[in-house]
Amino acid sequence: MSCGCKTSGDSSHSCGTKSANGCGSVDTCGNSYKLSVFDWLSNVNNPSKSQTDFVEVRFKNDRKFFYKNVHHLPLHIGSVVTVESSPGHDIGVVSLTGELVKIQMKKKHVSEDNPLKIYRLSNQKDIEVWHESRGKEEAVKIQARKISYALNLDMKITDVEFQGDGAKVTFYYTSDSRVDFRQLIKEYASAFRTKIDMKQIGFRQEAAKVGGIGSCGRELCCSTWLTDFRSVNTNAARYQQLSINPQKLAGQCGKLKCCLNYELDSYLDALSDFPSSSTTIDTVNGKAFCIKIDVFKKRMWFAYVDRSMAWYDLDVQDVKKLISQNKKGEKAPPLEELRNQHDIPVKSVDLIQENNMDRFEKKNRNSGKNQNRKKPNGPKNNPNQKSEQKAAGTPQRKNTPEKKPQNAKSQAQPQNAKPQNQQAKKFKKKPQPKRDDNA
């Protein structure tokens, strides 16, 4: 049995939540768990006839393990299988098959001796019991937190996971110190009537199980692809010239972000060409010490001991030359001269017009259309005439006629005078009615 959306194992399909657009069988979908994998060898034929009998089975959140297909069942990514467990059996979803399983087992140092077995493909009864157990997990977690709070234990119940047959329940908790939960297990056993298993996890493992969105806008690395949690310290931030701000450097788990180690090697390679940040230069104007380093531009900022407010940026090669002069017993020239030699003014081009205040205003698009209309008749511009004017030194005049004021005529005429061109209106006389003498 596999996911109802028939896209299990497809990297371009996401069945993360139950919704109108999502997968309706999110509990049985091979792509609806954290740490999803993509079998890039699925379309490649195996050159050897012998195929591996091991498959990778995933359970709730990021829990995975490898099982042996002893009965040679036709398994594929997304198949729901019943596997061996202690006690009873568990139900999971096949997440990887083929030759990639051997690579993963070698990477995680899993031995092929005495492996756990796959019993069968899960039937309808197994899946119903599994779904019923999964449905009780949220209520059990809330009740377990209340019991631990009543016992005044310094711990936090992060997640609860039922076994596929409901014979065992595992509580994942976080704590800063050792917790004596002997009384807690008794309370849990009497309340839930099943076998209790307690597992302590770290804060990073808690963030991986819960999941979330990081400050970069993407899903957390620990819940999508990161499995090995390496130690991160503040030196990684110092090498990358980052401000030591705990609020910005801390992730959702409260620890330093794992992504601080991603580009650390590249920064260390680039800093190998830089002199030490504690370098001092003995110049004519006094000693100067390093304040700041720009890894990308390969520049270093120096300031005098007496005038620490004025900074001078120098190229790395120039700094090395100054250091070699000091080793020979010579004093370096002033930093002002070195800065002026290499300062090249760079004109900034405002491509997107951020500094233009009227960039959102509608400009007059018809401003250039009236320029091509007929100009008033005037003397044509002769090139010979222009050359003669230049030779004589006389100022050139434009051929455009002077504009006369429009109100000149109106001022000369009296107010009651009528315009000359306007003619008086003629009214036709109506004929008088004829008199009838016979009346």
TrEMBL record:
InterPro entries: PSP1-like, PSP1_C. It holds the Pfam family PSP1. It comes from the Bacteria. Residues 116-201 form the PSP1 C-terminal domain. Residues 325-439 are annotated as: Disordered. Residues 325-345 have a biased composition (Basic and acidic residues). Residues 407-424 have a biased composition (Low complexity). NCBIfam families: RicT_YaaT_fam. This is Regulatory iron-sulfur-containing complex subunit RicT. It comes from Kaistella yananensis.
